[in-house]
């Protein structure tokens, strides 16, 4: 589907007609409400009703939480510079909040969405209006629930088009197609994580992966397959979004090469690859150039997990089908049936734990770094941080049998051995009103590990984590560098780390323990890729830099929801600057209460 937004200046008669049309449209559309223009930018209003709907997959019908009854949820389309106003009304028993993944939220931290960080969740029967402007961003992002595991079904694409009269820095596509990867549980995902947290064991894995909500033909009792119908000799822009809860995914289309042009809504130097890797929370725009002739075949689009941990995981494959539209034939008007008996070709995907492919693929991402889209990498760092990232354990409560490591503890996850406990009141409110010492949170999150060890070598005997609600406070405009180091505690594993409120530059990555004297001189400070979510390599490290130019409270966490539930998160508090446009405004009046 191509996205076209046309702004004109109508006559008064045309305005009246447009008003009547808008009124009818309001009554027939649950999502898009109204667009108003102001000095060239547009305010786009959406209405999101959180409601339960019965959905059937794999011959299992269950009631799922959705936006406007859609699974996946509705598509939001805006342009750079537009203001987005989304009224969310909660009609379900669950608390909920929505996160606009990757949106900078400059001076609009109240709309970021993570429950108990920037807001209390929206309770049953309540509503909240998310109100923010898209500043300096264009590309593919997505929105999703940010409460417990509700994002299993509550997610959708967020398409940021360039400003009017601005073009892509790559070939203009014939069509643009969002491709969302997800996970499906036959059980209720909320019950799955609740049971896991109670017993301390690993949660039951999903029953299928999905493409645009459909599992495809490789699963038992699966009647729903996503089909992408294309024409020969055309260029398609695929907007790839990994909305899966707990899995990084390989993706490939048989007999087709993809050209990667963007990552996390930042343009990159284009490169070709037969296979794409997407971590949860990551988005990638790719160009698909179809064959110049009609091929006598159809093509599987396959996705399967990349996994290096020691636990269980959903080792299955989701399939969609790329199907060429056959040229019109006067002798056979029933062209839709011409592909039924064609062979289906399969792509070859890397092995489940192909870490070398992942490292090589990741190193190919470089910022476009053109005069129009420069890579403004912080050069002189003000504050350095070193965060270990990994699993650990919590003690089993007395008189309870636990199913964690050795059946005597509970699984936990941490950064610098601090497992983050969600507060009972949103941190941003506490910070804004100057109440840091009321027992809700502290500001002593360690800048480096308190007990250094051989992070990727033999793990220590003591795997217990500390628990608390600890934050890091940094002044406005601080130039920050963070080394994120995987650990071998309970097994080395890749961790997709997401930072709210900022993009960051990935200046270096490698295997083993980070060595400042030998690794730092190799950092790429010219054209490193700019992202909002990066995978900490399994048994390795990654170095990121960002400018703390956004006042507020910003969550940083693993985008595996199981690790998030176990506490793999921390929060940055960025203080106000001195100028009015460097300060966080007061909260909106309808901010939900805990």
Offer a concise description of the structure.
This protein is mostly beta strands and 594 residues long. The protein is built from six helices and 34 strands.
Describe the model:
The structure is a single chain. The protein has helices at 12-28, 189-199, 355-362, 427-432, 516-519, 561-565; strands at residues 32-38, 41-57, 60-67, 76-79, 83-90, 98-101, 127-133, 139-145, 155-161, 175-184, 208-211, 227-230, 235-242, 248-253, 258-263, 266-273, 275-278, 283-289, 298-306, 318-324, 344-345, 383-395, 409-415, 418-420, 466-468, 471-474, 478-486, 495-499, 504-511, 530-531, 533-536, 540-548, 552-558, 569-574. With 594 residues, it is mostly beta strands. The strands form 7 sheets. Strands 11-10-13-18-15-16 form a 6-stranded mixed β-sheet, with no helix packed on it. The radius of gyration is 24 Å and the shape is globular. The relative contact order is 0.13.
């Amino acid at each position: 589907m191509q996205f076209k937004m046309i702004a004109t200046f109508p006559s008064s008669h045309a305005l009246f007609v447009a008003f009547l049309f808008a009124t009818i449209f309001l009554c027939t559309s649950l999502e898009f409400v109204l667009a108003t223009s102001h000095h060239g930018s547009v305010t786009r209003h959406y209405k999101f009703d959180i409601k339960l709907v019965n959905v059937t997959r794999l011959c299992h019908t269950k009631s799922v939480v959705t936006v406007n009854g859609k699974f996946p949820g509705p598509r939001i389309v805006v342009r750079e510079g537009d203001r987005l106003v989304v009224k969310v009304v909660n009609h379900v028993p669950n608390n909920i909040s929505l996160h606009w993944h990757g949106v900078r939220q400059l001076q609009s931290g109240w709309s970021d969405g993570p429950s108990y960080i920037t807001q209390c969740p929206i309770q049953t029967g309540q509503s909240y209006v998310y109100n923010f402007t898209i500043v300096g961003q264009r590309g593919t992002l997505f929105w999703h629930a940010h409460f417990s595991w509700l994002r299993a079904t509550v997610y959708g694409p967020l398409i940021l088009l360039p400003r009017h009269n601005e073009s892509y820095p790559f070939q203009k596509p014939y069509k643009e197609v969002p491709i969302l990867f997800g996970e499906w549980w036959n059980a209720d995902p909320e019950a799955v994580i609740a049971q896991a947290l109670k017993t301390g064991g690993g949660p039951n894995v999903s029953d299928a992966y999905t493409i645009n909500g459909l599992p495809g033909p490789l699963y038992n009792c699966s009647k729903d397959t996503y089909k992408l119908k294309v024409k020969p000799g055309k260029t398609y822009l695929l907007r790839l979004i990994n909305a899966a809860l707990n899995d990084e995914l390989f993706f490939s289309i048989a007999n087709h090469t993809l050209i990667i042009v963007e990552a996390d809504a930042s343009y990159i130097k284009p490169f070709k690859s037969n296979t794409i890797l997407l971590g949860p929370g990551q988005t990638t725009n790719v160009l698909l150039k179809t064959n110049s002739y009609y091929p006598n075949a159809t093509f599987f689009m396959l996705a399967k997990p990349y996994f290096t941990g020691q636990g269980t995981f959903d080792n299955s494959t989701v399939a969609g089908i790329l199907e060429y539209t056959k040229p019109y034939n006067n002798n056979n008007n029933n062209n839709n049936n011409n592909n039924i008996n064609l062979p289906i070709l399969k792509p070859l995907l890397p092995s489940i734990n192909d870490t070398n492919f992942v490292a090589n693929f990741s190193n190919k991402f470089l910022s476009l770094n053109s005069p129009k889209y420069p890579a403004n990498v912080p050069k002189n760092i003000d504050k350095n941080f070193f965060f270990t990232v990994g699993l650990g354990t919590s003690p089993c409560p007395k008189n309870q049998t636990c199913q964690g490591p050795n059946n005597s503890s509970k699984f936990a996850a941490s950064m610098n051995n601090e497992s983050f406990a969600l507060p009972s009141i949103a941190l941003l409110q506490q910070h804004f009103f100057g109440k840091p010492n009321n027992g809700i949170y502290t500001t002593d999150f360690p800048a480096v590990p308190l007990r250094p060890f051989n992070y990727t070598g033999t793990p220590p005997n003591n795997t217990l984590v500390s628990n608390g609600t600890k934050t890091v406070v940094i002044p406005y405009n601080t130039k920050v560098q963070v080394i994120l180091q995987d650990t071998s505690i309970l097994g080395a594993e890749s961790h997709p780390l997401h930072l709210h409120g900022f993009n960051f530059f990935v200046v270096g990555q490698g295997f083993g323990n980070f060595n400042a004297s030998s690794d730092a001189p190799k950092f790429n400070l010219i054209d490193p890729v700019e992202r909002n979510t990066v995978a900490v390599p399994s048994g390795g490290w990654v170095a990121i830099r960002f400018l703390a130019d956004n006042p507020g409270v910003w969550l940083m966490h693993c985008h595996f929801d199981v690790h998030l539930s176990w506490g793999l998160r921390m929060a940055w508090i960025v203080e106000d600057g001195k100028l009015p446009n460097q300060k966080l405004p007061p909260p909106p009046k309808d901010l939900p209460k805990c």
